[in-house]
TrEMBL record:
CC terms in the record's Gene Ontology section: mitochondrion
Family affiliation: Belongs to the flavokinase family.
Originating organism: Glarea lozoyensis (strain ATCC 74030 / MF5533)
Region Disordered: start-end pairs: 22-42, 170-192
MF term (GO), any: riboflavin kinase activity
Protein name: Riboflavin kinase
Lineage: Eukaryota, Fungi, Dikarya, Ascomycota, Pezizomycotina
Domain Riboflavin kinase residues, every copy: 1-137
Coiled-coil positions: none
E.C. code: 2.7.1.26
Amino acid sequence: MKMDPIDGVHFGWVSLRLHDTHPDLQTPPKIQPQHSPDRKSKDHAIFPLSDLKTPPPSSSNWRIYPMVMSIGFNPFYGNKERSAEVFIMNDFQEDFYGDYMRVSILGYIRKELNYIDVESLKNDINTDVDVALKSLARENWGVGKEESWLLGEGYSQELFEEKTREAEERARKKEAIEKAGKEKEKENEAKI
């Protein structure tokens, strides 16, 4: 049974299949626990990242990192479409646009909120990160049975690429339908 996650902030694990020349393939993950590196706060405990049990890197360029993920309309930015935004807790040396990503959602932190300013949003993201790291460090909350899937197993590369093409085609069709609908609305308005 397929279930869509509810809107709000979730936590779990994310994996990336980094391209062959990505510099992060040569170094261990550098987990970035704070949304802003210069943030210092006495209102919460800094969690020891050494307690996280992340698996070793795989030979197929897949790397696993802890994450928090916002699902919904992100009212602060006024999004009109439901989206998923993943905040990966790692200090990357380089962007990874175009690389494959897999997400394993393990828990729910809170509902979506609107904010009066960016600082309030960042403060809540930092709290979300703290909650996620503490949760993921608990016994039985590690990568566990999802590890092989997160490390790129379970699909052949051909099937993975086929599923990606299918998803892209569905997105193109949806966009074309929406565009046609908007054009039809404009035609109808012009007739009035």
